[in-house]
């Protein structure tokens, strides 16, 4: 019997490619996005159901989860919905700070909490959050994005203690820099006091030349598939060469020296 995966943030990038990968491997896919009326590709695929979902809307989340779990057993949930903020923290408006916390942290927690009764009744299930290497290391001017990803890493690690005895796996996939449309949704803050330093960072990391070295989203989708199917109570899956190298360098060099190395290369 085919298994079923539920994915948030499936309109573009990693979410959409993950939906297509699982569909190609014979899974039933429930792909959710804020505005399904704009989706023309996933709706044409066999065994793919496209549903509306805004992870900031608790009522809608519960309604959608109740709807799908009443008719099918969900085997895997992928929390992929999210966005980024880049730029000086001091220049970030309060509403954008609240939005990233509401989406990247609380959104993941809301969806997870809504599915837990279903997974408990099944005595199994896999919960995967698409985190980031930025949940273990940091880049300049991504302070708020890092805050959300570090929060998810700590939350996930602690949740393992609660869920493992119930037969439920909870994991994160941590990609390095990836070529997706994610950059189009990034809010960019500004502040004149940080302009010179931010310009240096933009030229080293946010330039077209730098972006050309980013990994394909297919790499991340394959890591998600591994996490979903390997049957392991493994907490983290570093996705791509850059993420693995940065993590190993941080361990080898130590936090302070690794931070100095990143500062020299990016600023």
UniProtKB/TrEMBL annotation:
GO terms for molecular function: oxidoreductase activity. The keyword Oxidoreductase applies. It comes from the Bacteria. InterPro entries: NAD(P)-bd_dom_sf (IPR036291), SDR_fam (IPR002347), SDR_oxidoreductase (IPR051911). SUPFAM superfamilies: NAD(P)-binding Rossmann-fold domains (SSF51735). It holds the Pfam family adh_short. The keyword Oxidoreductase applies. Keywords: Oxidoreductase. Belongs to the short-chain dehydrogenases/reductases (SDR) family. This is SDR family oxidoreductase.
